[in-house]
Amino acid sequence: MSSEAGQQHPLGIYYKIWILLFVLSGFSYAVDYFHVEGGMRWFLVITFMFLKAGFITAIFMHVVWERLALVLTILVPPLALLFLIGFMTVEGNYTEETRYQYRGHDRTLTPLSPADLHGGGHADEGHGAEAAAH
Amino acid sequence: MSETAAIQGSPEGVDGLVEDWASDKQTYNVPWGKAMMWIFLVSDTFIFTCFLTGYLNVRLTTTEPWPLQTEIFALTLFGQSIPLVLIAIMTFILITSSGSMALAVNFGYRKDKQKTFIAMVITALLGLSFVGMQAFEWTKLIVDESIRPWGNPYGAAQFGSVFFMVTGFHGLHVTGGVIYLLIVANKVRKGDYDKKGYEIVEIAGLYWHFVDLVWVFIFAFFYLL
């Protein structure tokens, strides 16, 4: 598919992906708008995020039409970052737990919301659940 | 032109991969500018991921409560507080600009200078409006919500430092991209690429799509989660 003339494809596919990205962004926003919380929120947001990233890279950046030599050069090195993320997650959880157990940090603190500070209407709903989880 | 002939007779897939690397020839069958842009983007991926991993780490390690991001970024419109509305608009603007850039690349390869120029200028203007909204957002956070890189009234102090660093670095990328696009668009209009070929529009497009790609991750991790 790749040729010396560069990446040339029918316009239709760009319009389709464009609409798809709009829809996926709409879904991500809906997750927040309808207050989906907890594990389901993480699952949905990250799924939509990777779908969007995949379509942008594959179609808009033409990776799907490149030769394998270039595709692997682009996609393989960032896999090392998965190790970094994994190690930092383990390390981060360990540090936090150490601070609770040995430095006497308070586990029950909850964040303030702008409404608390500006004296706005709705009180902090949902914070209790977060405090209980700790 | 001998490269092209070699590629045309070359197999696709894994056999093609072996042949591309093992034969005594240039490995990538793309213009050098494009290969180098890809290498730059891969290294930029590392930079942004290191920032985001730093964010992950401070958010995990701090025992101060993390500020409620969706409430801080809410905007009051028509007397009603709507969560994340500005961020949603910014997201849609950036996707729209990515789409118009994809069209510009396509028009470029058709050697339609007029349409390429217009699509690129639209892309740059959308990028500029994105930066404008980000400036507005920062102003609101700093002035109204008293969020500083070294502290804020809502919770963990680290929130301000990672937020301003990562979105600021992304905003710099957008600003640089706008300038880059306008320079290339002007050269397209003047016909500089008639002889050289329009790959340069695709290369500029790669950079622009990458900026959109990074925003996808920032949108998820800073605003939604």
CATH architecture grouping of the largest domain in chain B: Up-down Bundle
Low-confidence stretches of chain A: 121-134
Q: What is the fourth-level CATH superfamily of the largest domain in chain B? A: Cytochrome c oxidase, subunit III, four-helix bundle
Biggest pleated-sheet summary of chain B: 2 strands, antiparallel
Radius of gyration of chain B: 21 Å
Low-confidence stretches of chain B: 1-6
The top level CATH class name of the largest domain in chain B: Mainly Alpha
Strand order of the largest sheet of chain B: 1-2
Mean pLDDT value of chain B: 90
Overall mean pLDDT of chain A: 84
What is the structural class of chain B?
A: mainly alpha
Envelope shape of chain B: globular
Let me know the number of strands of chain A: 0
Helix content range of chain A: 55-70%
Order of helices and strands of chain A, N to C?
HHHHHH
Q: Shape of chain A, please?
A: flat
Helix content of chain B: over 70%
Percent of residues in β-strands of chain A: under 5%
Largest sheet entry of chain A: none
What is the tally of beta strands of chain B?
2
Provide structural commentary.
The complex is a heterodimer of chains A (134) and B (225). By secondary structure, chain A is an all-alpha fold. Chain A is built from six helices and no strands. The longest helix of chain A has 23 residues, at 11-33. In chain A, 66% of the residues lie in helices and 0% in strands. In chain A, 17% of the residues are buried. In chain A, helix 1 (11-33) runs antiparallel to helix 2. Chain B has two domains: 1-29, no CATH class; 31-224, Cytochrome c oxidase, subunit III, four-helix bundle (Four Helix Bundle (Hemerythrin (Met), subunit A), Up-down Bundle), CATH 1.20.120. Chain B has a two-stranded antiparallel ribbon with strand order 1-2. In chain B, a hairpin with a 2-residue loop joins strand 1 and strand 2 (80-82). In chain B, helix 3 (32-61) runs antiparallel to helix 7 (158-190) and helix 7 (158-190) packs antiparallel against helix 9 (199-224).
